[in-house]
Amino acid sequence: MLFKKNPNNNIIFEELHIRHLNLLIDLKNHKGNNWFYKMALISTFEDLKIFLVNLEKNKNKCIIAIQNNKLIGYVYTYPLNEKKTCLKINVPKIIYENNSLSNRDLIKKLIKNSIILTDLRTSSWIIYSDIHNNELISCSRELGFQPLQEITLWSNKNNINDFKNKKFTTKKFSKINKNNIKKVLNFVRSNESILIRNILDLEIEDIYRMIDKNCGVYTSCEEINFCILRDMGYENDNVYLLLGGLCWDERINSALRNKIKDILNNDNNIYFKTYSSNETLNAFLVESNLTTTSQEIILVRNTLIKREVKSINQINKSIENIIGKINPQGNAYPSPSPIKLK
Description:
It is a single chain. The protein has helices at residues 21-25, 33-54, 103-116, 134-142, 181-190, 194-200, 204-209, 253-266, 279-287, 303-308, 319-323; strands spanning 2-6, 11-14, 61-67, 70-79, 86-89, 93-94, 124-130, 146-155, 173-174, 216-220, 223-230, 238-244, 270-275, 291-302. Mean pLDDT is 79; it is low at 1-8, 305-316 and 322-332. Strands 3, 4, 5, 6, 7, 8, 9, 10, 11, 12, 13 and 14 form a 12-stranded mixed sheet that branches. The protein is α+β, with helices and mostly antiparallel strands. Helix 3 crosses helix 4.
């Protein structure tokens, strides 16, 4: 808290705070430091009281790896739904390499501890990995993650001038509001497999979080046949999920293409996400001059899978064999025996 500032000699009077720790370290007389530290902590928590009272308990966590008093790596996790039953584990980051532990072992330990340090309410953990990141995929598989499906990210990186300074009409496009959000939720659920639906565990509150000015739906006879939503699985990127329903056909292609161009005209640093198995939608984006930026594999560790995989004979079976609902796309991925987390 700022109390007083004297304009004549630039002396600032502030309540002792944890941010003043560097000043305490520089004190020539260290005899009173313990008292100073105590008062700094008390003042800091006083400042945080209002924030803490209103703060909903969340599962946003940053797990760090420390060696010889040096931060050598970290991993960030956060919930993908309001119930906080599904957590996204971002790709672990290695800051410094070390001789005592390989990067692979460090990645595995970071992921392992991010799972251990979550409470019992969590039932699913999700990792998005580049399909060429064999190290991350292998580490995840050892920790019990199963490949679910592949996704493709699209951008306009190679066609920057195509949409510049153009005006487009999107008359058939409707915003998402309280009148249609229940239908949107049902539409999203209907476009997912039973397993993904249970893992993501989305509710209306989650759809509200996935809405911004670019989001909306195309309808025909009051039924949704296409939907654009902000994807919450990407913390720092503007990624939009494109979902086409069974009723989507060429009658809305022109309007949809214009809407995509309109979005990119406002912000060219936007990515669109599709499931690699949706060949029709992916072909449509190619025809719309979008470029594939990357392909990723969704890896999932779920308590349902964990209950099913109890014997060593089941460890290397695919989700299709275990659950009977999923047909993972792409090439086979490394699947060594999982290690115990505890």
